[in-house]
C-alpha cells in the first residue's frame, strides 16, 4: 500500500481543520437526535463550500474530485466528533445521479448539495436486517397505475425523527424473488400514513421504527426500474466504503481516554500502560485498514473485503478502548454520563449497524479465503 496525500489534498485537510474549529463542541458523531439542529447548520455551512458534493460530477454542480477528498473531510469530521457523513449526499444523491429521472435530479440534487434536505434510509425490518433480501414491506401499484401503495414496517432507522425524506426499499415483486423483487422509493416524511416511532438506544439516543399504512407514493418517485433496487443499493454501498468507518473516530477515542486516565493519576500504572500500548497498535491497524479501503477505491478495485476487514477491526477497537478504562479506571469510570461509560455504551452498537461482525467475517472468509458456506 502506498498512500501519500498530495500537496492539494493536505491543503484541503488544513482547510477542513480550520472550518471545524467552529463545530468542535457539537458531539454529533456519538449522538444523533439531541444535536441535529447544530449538525444541520454545519452541513449547510459545508454546502456553501460545496463540500457535500466533493466527488459529484461537475454537470450536477459537484467538484469532480477523487475519493481521497471525501476521505479527508469525513475523517477529520469524525476526529472532531462533529457528525457522521450524511447519507443524503452519498447513497441517495449518487443513486439519483445514476438511476434517477431528470425530474428527480432537478428536484433533489441541488437541495441535497446545499444541505437543505436530508434523507433517512429505510431498509431494515424486524425480520430482515442481515437478511435484507427477505424484507416484506409491500409496494403495490394501484389500478390506475399512478401510485404505489406502501404497507409494512421498518426498524432501526437512524435520524428518521429529524429527516425530511425517506429512502425506502420495498417489495414490488414476489416474496420468493428475494432481492430481485425490490424497488426504491423517495417519500416525503409528511405523507399521510407514515408514522415514525422512537426506539430508545442503550446510549440514551434514538433509532426509529417507521410504519407505512396505505401510503401513496407517485410512480414518478420510484428510483430506477421496478424490481431493480438490489443493484442500485449495492453500488451505493460500494461508493461509501471509504467514509463509513473513519479511523479519526478511534484515534479520538484513544486520545480522550488516555487524557482521562492521566487526569485520574493512572497514566503511570504499568498494567494500564501495557493495555494502552496494545490499543495504540489497534488504532494504527484501523488507520491502515481505512487507508487500504481508500486505496482500493482510488485504484478502481473492489473494496468489499478491505471494507469488511476495516469494519471488524474498527468497531471492535471502538469497544476495546472504553472497556480498558472501565476495567482499570475505578468507580469514576462507571459514573453515568461520564465520558468512559458514555463512549462504552455508544460503542456497543457499532458492531451491528452497517452489517454485523458475523456477516463481515463471512465476507472475509468467503471472498478473501475462498471458504465455502
Ligand atoms: C446504530 C444503528 C444504526 C442503524 N441504522 C439503520 C438505518 O439508518 N437504516 C436501516 O435500514 N437500518 C439501520 N440499522 C439496522 C442494521 O442494518 C441492522 O441492525 C443489521 O443489519 C443487523 O440486522 P438485525 O438487527 O435484524 O440482526 P439479525 O440479522 O437478526 O442478526 C442477529 C444476530 O444473528 C447473526 N446473524 C444473522 N445472520 C447471520 C448469518 N448469515 N451468519 C452468521 N450470523 C448471522 C448476526 O450477526 C447477529 O449477531 C441500524 C442499526 C444500528 C445498530
Taken together, the total number of domains comes to 3
CATH superfamily of the largest domain: Butyryl-CoA Dehydrogenase, subunit A, domain 3
Quaternary structure classification: single chain
Bound molecules: flavin-adenine dinucleotide
Structural class: alpha+beta
* Main β sheet profile: 4 strands, mixed
Shape: globular
SS element count, helices: 12
Keywords:
alpha+beta; binds flavin-adenine dinucleotide; Butyryl-CoA Dehydrogenase, subunit A, domain 2; 3 domains; 46% helix; 12 helices; four-stranded mixed beta sheet
Describe this structure in words.
The chain has 373 residues and is an alpha+beta fold. It has three domains: 7-85; 119-227, Beta Barrel (Butyryl-CoA Dehydrogenase, subunit A, domain 2), CATH 2.40.110; 245-368, Butyryl-CoA Dehydrogenase, subunit A, domain 3 (Up-down Bundle). The chain has twelve helices and eight strands. It has helices at residues 7-20, 36-48, 67-79, 88-99, 102-113, 229-239, 241-244, 248-263, 270-298, 304-328, 339-347, 357-368, and strands spanning 119-122, 138-141, 147-155, 165-171, 182-188, 194-200, 206-218, 222-223. The strands form two sheets. It has a four-stranded mixed β-sheet with strand order 1-4-5-8. The protein has a four-stranded antiparallel β-sheet with strand order 2-3-7-6, with no helix packed on it. Helix 1 (7-20) runs parallel beside helix 3 and helix 10 packs antiparallel against helix 11. The longest helix has 29 residues, at 270-298. It is globular and about 75 Å long. It starts with 6 loop residues before the first helix and ends in a 5-residue tail after the last helix. The mean pLDDT is 96. The chain binds flavin-adenine dinucleotide.
Amino acid at each position: 500500500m502506498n498512500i501519500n496525500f498530495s500537496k492539494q489534498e493536505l491543503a484541503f485537510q488544513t482547510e477542513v481543520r480550520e472550518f471545524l474549529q467552529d463545530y468542535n463542541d457539537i458531539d454529533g458523531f456519538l449522538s444523533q437526535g439531541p444535536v441535529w439542529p447544530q449538525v444541520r447548520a454545519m452541513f449547510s455551512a459545508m454546502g456553501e463550500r460545496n463540500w457535500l458534493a466533493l466527488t459529484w460530477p461537475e454537470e450536477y454542480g459537484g467538484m469532480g474530485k477523487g475519493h481521497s477528498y471525501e476521505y479527508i473531510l469525513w475523517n477529520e469530521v469524525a476526529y472532531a466528533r462533529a457528525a457522521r457523513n450524511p447519507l443524503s449526499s452519498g447513497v441517495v444523491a449518487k443513486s439519483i445521479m445514476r438511476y434517477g429521472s431528470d425530474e428527480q435530479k432537478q428536484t433533489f440534487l441541488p437541495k441535497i448539495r446545499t444541505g437543505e434536505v436530508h434523507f433517512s434510509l429505510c431498509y431494515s425490518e424486524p425480520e430482515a436486517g442481515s437478511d435484507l433480501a427477505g424484507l416484506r414491506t409491500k409496494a403495490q401499484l394501484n389500478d390506475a397505475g399512478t401510485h404505489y401503495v406502501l404497507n409494512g414496517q421498518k426498524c432501526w432507522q437512524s435520524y428518521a425523527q429529524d429527516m425530511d425524506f425517506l429512502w425506502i426499499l420495498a417489495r414490488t415483486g414476489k416474496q420468493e424473488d428475494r432481492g430481485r423483487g425490490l424497488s426504491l422509493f423517495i417519500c416525503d416524511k409528511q405523507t399521510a400514513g407514515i408514522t415514525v416511532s422512537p426506539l430508545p438506544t442503550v446510549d440514551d439516543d434514538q433509532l426509529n421504527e417507521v410504519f407505512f399504512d396505505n401510503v401513496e407514493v407517485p410512480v414518478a418517485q420510484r428510483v430506477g426500474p421496478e424490481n431493480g433496487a438490489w443493484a442500485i443499493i449495492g453500488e451505493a454501498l460500494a461508493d461509501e466504503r471509504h467514509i463509513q468507518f473513519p479511523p479519526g473516530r478511534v484515534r479520538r477515542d484513544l486520545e480522550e481516554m488516555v487524557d482521562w486516565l492521566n487526569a485520574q493519576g493512572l497514566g503511570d500504572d504499568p498494567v494500564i500502560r501495557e493495555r494502552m500500548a496494545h490499543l495504540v497498535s489497534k488504532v494504527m491497524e484501523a488507520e491502515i485498514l481505512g487507508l487500504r479501503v481508500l486505496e482500493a477505491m482510488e485504484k478502481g478495485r473492489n473494496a468489499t473485503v478491505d471494507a469488511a476487514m476495516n469494519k471488524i477491526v474498527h468497531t471492535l477497537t471502538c469497544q476495546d478502548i472504553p472497556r480498558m478504562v472501565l476495567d482499570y479506571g475505578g468507580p469514576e469510570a462507571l459514573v453515568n454520563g461520564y465520558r468512559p461509560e458514555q463512549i462504552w455504551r455508544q460503542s456497543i452498537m457499532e458492531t451491528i449497524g452497517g452489517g454485523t461482525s458475523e456477516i463481515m467475517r463471512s465476507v472475509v472468509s468467503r471472498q478473501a479465503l475462498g471458504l465455502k458456506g
